[in-house]
Amino acid sequence: MRAEIVVLPGDGIGPEVTAAAVSVLESVGRRYGHTFAFTHRLIGGAAIDAEGAPLSDATLDACRKADAILLGAVGGPKWSDGKIRPEQGLLKLRKALGLYANLRPVKTHPVALTASPIKSHLLTGVDMIVVRELTGGVYFGEKTRTDTTASDLCEYSVAEIERVVRRACQLARGRRKYVVSVDKANVLETSRLWRQVASRVAAEEFPDVRLEHQLVDSMAMHLIARPREYDVIVTENMFGDILTDEASMLAGSMGLLPSASLGEGTSGLYEPIHGSAPDIAGRGIANPCGTILSAAMLLRHSLGLEQEARCVEKAVAQAIDDGCLTADLAPQGAALDTLAMAKAVLQRLE
Ligand code: ATP
Ligand code: MG
């Protein structure tokens, strides 16, 4: 097949980790006879510096036309005090493309377990995916502020809940057919609607999928106490924001975890969950695995290339199992740099 992929390296370690992921995609393309055409564009601070805005119309247009978008990270101290913020570019892109479902798989690799602050016997075999609603909730509700009060409105429509729950149930079908919907239905009206809609969608459209509800506070506890039990977790925007950062600690390093943001069509935005890591930027030591695994998600969700996606995931797991580790995971002195890690993955692609 032929696919157009827009690459947005962004800021900090973004260019380093996206270069590694592009080399993996190119290799997979060659191996399986696909032509991937890459177009590089600026986003975030890099775009503010060069184009005066964190996401130009031309870049947005290119993203709209592409089959998929691979992103590094945006932001950094250089722009944190400015009037225009790099993060606005990413928010604008998500909004313009209608990307409402943020998928974050968390899988533990045996070698990485020692890097997690959580006891390793709890972590063996963790394999879950959190689906976070990305366009609604309190982050986007009306905001008011007076001298003595402030408020953020939390709003959800039936349609917004339906589509993200549906996406979670579809994912579960290809996995262990188990979805936990997280809310705070004992105190929030939006959560009561969420729970009602989730139950209906699951019962009417996915009778083969087991749906359970859990309050977000108890979910935060269970995520650490018994992470192995979870398959798919679906939740609203802010709960998802918090729970996905918590879940990332299970894997041992932020540098390992990928994400996908999906909308109605097949296109999507793929990026590692970590930020631009200004403290290590430019040194060539960042862990590229989160971005390489995001490229695997791109193959799966936007291009429909499941076998190719698994091939990349297997190569990453194999490299880590073989002890190929970047500084965030390796004991002192034994670390690979970004290029060497990418090479270790490339060598293991079947
Ligand atoms: P943002 O606000 O952009 O989300 P953040 O404050 O969450 O950023 P990150 O940039 O994600 O922070 O970095 C957090 C810590 O994790 C930093 O010390 C960084 O060096 C480390 N880190 C993040 N990504 C990687 C990676 N790919 N490889 C190695 N270390 C990483
Ligand atoms: Mg962060």
From TrEMBL:
Pathway: Amino-acid biosynthesis; L-leucine biosynthesis; L-leucine from 3-methyl-2-oxobutanoate: step 3/4. NAD(+) binds at residues 275-287. Keywords: Amino-acid biosynthesis, Branched-chain amino acid biosynthesis, Cytoplasm, Leucine biosynthesis, Magnesium, Manganese, Metal-binding, NAD, Oxidoreductase. One of its GO terms (molecular function) is 3-isopropylmalate dehydrogenase activity. It comes from the Bacteria. Substrate binds at residues 94, 104, 132, 217. Binds 1 Mg(2+) or Mn(2+) ion per subunit. Residues 4-345 form the Isopropylmalate dehydrogenase-like domain. Its cofactor is Mn(2+); Mg(2+). PROSITE patterns: IDH_IMDH. It is an enzyme of class 1 (oxidoreductase). Pfam families: Iso_dh. It catalyses: (2R,3S)-3-isopropylmalate + NAD(+) = 4-methyl-2-oxopentanoate + CO2 + NADH. HAMAP family: LeuB_type1. Homodimer. NCBIfam families: leuB. Catalyzes the oxidation of 3-carboxy-2-hydroxy-4-methylpentanoate (3-isopropylmalate) to 3-carboxy-4-methyl-2-oxopentanoate. The product decarboxylates to 4-methyl-2 oxopentanoate. Belongs to the isocitrate and isopropylmalate dehydrogenases family. LeuB type 1 subfamily. This is 3-isopropylmalate dehydrogenase. The gene is leuB.
